[in-house]
Write a structure and sequence with these properties.
The chain is of the alpha/beta class. The chain has a domain at 2-94 and 166-246: 3-Layer(aba) Sandwich (Rossmann fold), CATH 3.40.50. The chain has ten helices and ten strands. The strands form two sheets. The chain has a six-stranded mixed beta sheet, sandwiched between helices. It has a four-stranded antiparallel beta sheet with strand order 2-1-4-5, with helices on one face. A hairpin with a 2-residue loop joins strand 1 and strand 2 (16-27). Helix 3 packs across helix 4 and helix 4 (116-129) packs across helix 6 (149-162). Bound molecules: adenosine-5'-triphosphate. Residues 13, 16, 18, 36, 38-44, 56, 203 line the site of adenosine-5'-triphosphate.
C-alpha cells in the first residue's frame, strides 16, 4: 500500500524550475531515502508533502500529491491538519524554550487537549518511541536546552510523534550530530517504520544504505531513479546514479 503518491509534480521558485515532473509512489511503513547532489531538489520535494513550500513567496506547484489517498493541495485541505498528519524533523534540532515535558506536550495542548493523565501518558510513550525516555525521565521539568544536540534531536522526534502523524519527513536529521548520536537516530528510524512512513533526505550514502528500504536519486530537479535501496546501490540503471553513488560527482 502506498502512503505518498505524486503525479507529474513541477515546482517553480519564481522563474526557476526546481522540480521537473516528479511522479512516485512511496510505500507505507517503509523508509525512503532521497539522495542526490546539493541543489537537486530533494528538500524542495520533501517540503511539498506537508506544504511547507506554501510559506515561500512566489512558489508555483503543479501536478498532484496524494497522502494516504487524499489530495493535499485540494482547496478544502486545512494545512494545520495536514501538518499533524505529516510531521517534520529538521536538520538542526529546534526545541522550544520550554521544559522537556512541555516540548513533547506542546502539540497536544495546541490541539486543545487538557486531560493531564492523557498528556502524561502520551509524553511518556512518545519519549519512549524516540528512545529518549530513560535519559530524561528524572528531569522532565528541566529546560530542553540542557540536553545534548543528539538528545535534542530525539526530543524533536518525540514532539513530532506525540501528535500521532502517519508520515514523518526528516530533512538530514543527523547531519548536525556526532557519530554516536547519529547511530542512535538511525536505529530509531529503523524502529519507527513499524508505525510510520518515513522519508529522509540525506547526503550520507552509507546512512541511506543502512536505514532505507527504497531510495530515490534526484539530479537537477528530476527524479532519475527510484527503487529498492539495495538495487540502487548495487546495480543502478542510470549512468548518472552510478556516477553519484560511486562518488564521481556531488
Ligand atoms: N526559497 C527558495 N527560493 C528560490 N530558490 C530556492 C529556494 N529554495 C531552494 N531553491 C533552489 O531550488 C533548488 C533545489 O534546492 P533544494 O534545497 O531543494 O535542494 P537539495 O537537493 O535539498 O539541496 P541540499 O542537498 O544542498 O540541501 C536549488 O537550486 C536552490 O537554490
Amino acid at each position: 500500500m502506498n502512503s505518498i503518491e505524486t503525479k507529474d509534480v513541477h515546482l517553480y521558485y519564481g522563474d526557476f524550475h526546481a522540480l521537473k515532473g516528479i511522479s512516485t509512489a512511496l510505500k507505507k511503513n517503509q523508509v525512503t531515502a532521497f539522495i542526490g547532489p546539493s541543489g537537486c531538489g530533494k528538500s524542495t520535494y520533501l517540503r511539498c508533502f506537508n506544504r511547507m513550500n506554501d510559506l515561500i513567496d512566489n512558489v508555483k506547484i503543479t501536478g498532484e500529491i496524494l497522502i494516504d489517498e487524499v489530495d493535499i493541495y485540494q482547496k478544502n485541505i486545512r494545512v494545520d491538519d495536514l501538518r499533524k498528519h505529516v510531521g517534520m524533523v529538521f536538520q538542526k534540532p529546534n526545541p522550544f524554550p520550554k521544559s522537556i515535558f512541555e516540548n513533547v506536550a506542546y502539540g497536544l495542548r495546541v490541539d486543545g487537549i487538557s486531560d493531564k493523565a492523557f498528556i502524561e501518558e502520551r509524553v511518556e510513550r512518545s519519549l519512549k518511541q524516540a528512545a529518549l525516555w530513560e535519559e530524561v525521565k528524572d528531569k522532565l521539568k528541566k529546560s530542553a536546552f540542557e540536553l545534548s544536540g543528539g538528545q535534542q534531536q530525539r526530543l524533536c522526534i518525540a514532539r513530532t510523534l506525540a501528535i500521532e502523524p502517519s508520515v514523518v519527513l526528516m530533512d538530514e536529521p543527523a547531519s548536525a550530530l556526532d557519530p554516536i548520536s547519529t547511530a542512535k537516530i538511525e536505529e530509531l528510524i529503523y524502529e519507527l517504520k513499524k508505525d510510520y512512513t518515513i522519508v529522509i533526505v540525506t547526503h550520507n550514502m552509507q546512512q541511506a544504505g543502512r536505514v532505507s528500504d527504497h531510495t530515490a536519486f534526484f539530479y537537477l530537479g528530476e527524479l532519475i531513479e527510484y527503487g529498492k535501496t539495495k538495487t540502487i546501490f548495487t546495480s543502478p540503471k542510470d549512468q548518472r546514479t552510478q556516477n553519484y553513488i560511486t562518488g564521481r560527482f556531488g
